[in-house]
Amino acid sequence: MSVKHALLALLEQQPMYGYQLRAEFEQRTGTTWPLNVGQVYTTLTRLERDGLAFADGEDGEGHVIYRITDAGRDEVATWFTTPVGRTQPPRDELAIKLALAVTVPGVDVGTVIQQQRSATMAALQDYTRLKRQAAAGAVPDAGADDGSGGADLAWSLVLDSLVFAAEAEIRWLDHCESRLRRAAAGGVGRRNARLDEEAPARGAR
Amino acid sequence: MNPVLKLTDVTRIHGEAPHEVLALRGISFEAHPGELVAVMGPSGSGKSTLLTIAGGLDRPTAGSVTVEGTDLAGLGQHGRARMRRTSIGYVFQGFNLIPALTAAENVALPRELDGVAPRRARAEARKALEEVGIADLADRFPDDMSGGQQQRVAIARAVVGERRLILADEPTGALDTETGEGILQLLRARCDAGAAGVLVTHEARHAAWADRVVFLRDGVVVDETGADRVDVLTGPGAR
Ligand SMILES: Nc1ncnc2c1ncn2[C@@H]1O[C@H](COP(=O)(O)OP(=O)(O)OP(=O)(O)O)[C@@H](O)[C@H]1O
Ligand SMILES: [Mg+2]
């Protein structure tokens, strides 16, 4: 995740100090990708070094306020208009695990799939619960015009993203399972195991 | 708390040997008040069979089914029919609306059959149609509605009155995602209000609204997420 760009984008909205940046980030993304304050300050130092932001004095309580530069604004604009790279898909532990499970002898792939599906389903239940909570707490149709409505929207979009990803993973697991079953059944396109299929074919010529 | 629905060692064999199909193999299953349970599994795994047996529309070959403590087998035909009208709301995989009746009449029918005054039954029907977002279609006939609209009528019919057990077989099948979510919200609200619900679905995102998700394979529960995790993988289902 690009902490640098996320913080710059927040600074484009208004000058802020470290804790504030972290709070704003988490208001939009929940605790999905927690940021520690140390990380925020190292990033701010780097932004300053690269001329993308600068420390612009302190507020009444002694917080150092950071402000974005013109170069920083350009950087944010470029970030938003450049698609997230897909040329090298992020390493997917589950795909790798299954790829090995189907080739390494003695692994019960069916169990691997089922356990993963249950775990992913449980996560999906959690995300859905969070979504329901968010919906219950939010004013219906809160627009993006006031700050909090926009943050609510951002958070619910992040949740949607997690929901879609979990859903896709479950679909893929279903797909793997049915392909494996078909392969196990001898490549014949059987839809289900049947009692009469378990017995040897009768009346075969 | 006593379960609203309890299946004990239910087996259902369809057809005759040598072509018999073992649709359910000794399934035990409960749904408690306030609980929404989702059932997932590949096509042919026995989901609809499970639901029709839970709703008293089909009878197990072996095992028992109780609804609110009453054994369905001991009820007889009339008793079961009454139970279906009063306690159980059922959404079929096909919608099963009566073509000669309007949407409102379809929804009001089970209530009227059960002796609720027609006027009150109509009022309840309109309220249920409102809840599924098609109050304006109350006087339409099923043939003059889209698939998704018919589906919503079927759902209204299942939730009208104070049903304690709501059984829904792919209730979101013909609906777009937003309308589908609306239906889940409605089911969820009914369960939060104290009903027990069983939802059969292929869609993980819909199953995720449930408190518990049960996975069926070849007539056997192979796994379950939710409150009490059970490791049934080593059970009779593992072959
Ligand atoms: N009346 C019947 N006579 C014979 N076999 C039947 C009958 N009803 C269902 N079956 C068989 O029982 C098995 C379970 O069917 P069921 O309808 O419960 O599956 P399902 O999980 O609901 O599938 P789907 O997702 O396709 O709706 C299937 O193999 C089906 O062919
Ligand atoms: Mg079915």
UniProtKB/TrEMBL annotation, chain A:
Residues 7-77 form the Transcription regulator PadR N-terminal domain. Residues 91-180 form the Transcription regulator PadR C-terminal domain. InterPro entries: Tscrpt_reg_PadR_C, Tscrpt_reg_PadR_N, WH-like_DNA-bd_sf, WH_DNA-bd_sf. This is PadR family transcriptional regulator. The lineage of its organism: Bacteria, Bacillati, Actinomycetota, Actinomycetes, Propionibacteriales.
UniProtKB/TrEMBL annotation, chain B:
InterPro entries: AAA+_ATPase (IPR003593), ABC_transporter-like_ATP-bd (IPR003439), ABC_transporter-like_CS (IPR017871), ABC_transpr_LolD-like (IPR015854), MacB-like_ATP-bd (IPR017911), P-loop_NTPase (IPR027417). PROSITE patterns: ABC_TRANSPORTER_1, ABC_TRANSPORTER_2. Residues 5-234 form the ABC transporter domain. Keywords: ATP-binding, Nucleotide-binding, Transport. SMART domains: AAA. It holds the Pfam family ABC_tran. One of its GO terms (cellular component) is plasma membrane. GO terms for molecular function: ATP binding; ATP hydrolysis activity; transmembrane transporter activity. This is ABC transporter ATP-binding protein. It comes from Nocardioides albidus.
